[in-house]
UniProtKB/TrEMBL annotation:
InterPro entries reported in the protein's UniProt record: NTF2-like_dom_sf (IPR032710), SnoaL-like (IPR037401)
Residue ranges, annotated region (Disordered): 137-164
Domain called SnoaL-like: residue spans: 11-138
Domain of life: Bacteria
Protein name: DUF4440 domain-containing protein
Transmembrane segments: none
Species of origin: Streptomyces tsukubensis
Composition-biased stretches (Acidic residues): 142-155
PANTHER family, A to Z: NUCLEAR TRANSPORT FACTOR 2 (NTF2) FAMILY PROTEIN
SUPFAM superfamilies in the cross-refs: NTF2-like
Pfam assignment, any one: SnoaL_3
Length: 164
């Protein structure tokens, strides 16, 4: 964390408030963290771009209504501030669970997901507000995938030499 009271720390605090509002399912707090303008935008992993405050906030209401549990562990956080605008990038290590599959269970199975995000904030008289959120899934390869790709690149019977 940076020196207390710096713009960078203020942006980090606004970002933390955003993810905490999601974790707690607090739509009112989440709504208050976005700019009160139609120029906002959001891209959730696998979704098309959403533009306008109404469309963006509807998407969060939908996500909150269909997510029983969600927790974010943020890593690789970087912040750049210039002329009243801040760009924060991070890795969202997400743990989530849906509704229980059977009555009596408290929560469905937990699922982990790795997402990279860019959050753009603008300074306002009420503090830093979200202008844009863009999140994309991280598609990682396992060692087995890497070995299979190497085998496929070599081709059948390829000994690395030139054809006879």
């Amino acid at each position: 964390m940076t020196t207390p009271g710096t713009e960078t720390e203020e942006v980090e605090l606004a970002n933390t408030a955003f993810y905490e509002a999601m974790e707690h399912g607090d739509f009112d707090v989440l709504s208050g963290l976005w700019l009160d303008e139609e120029g906002v935008s959001c891209v959730h992993p696998g979704w098309p771009v959403l533009t306008g405050r109404g469309e963006v906030l509807r998407s969060y209401a939908l996500i909150m209504a269909n997510t029983e549990y969600i927790q974010f562990f943020l890593t690789d956080v970087t912040v750049e501030v210039s002329a009243g605008t801040a760009v924060l990038t991070c890795t969202e290590n997400i743990l989530s669970g849906g509704p229980a599959p059977e009555e009596g269970d408290e929560l469905g199975p937990l699922v982990g997901q790795l997402v990279v995000a860019t959050n753009v904030f603008r300074r306002t008289s009420d503090g830093w507000k979200l202008w844009s959120h863009h999140a994309s899934p991280v598609l990682t390869e396992t060692e087995a995938d890497d070995e299979q790709a190497e085998d496929e690149d070599a081709g059948p019977g390829d000994s690395g030499g030139s054809p006879a």
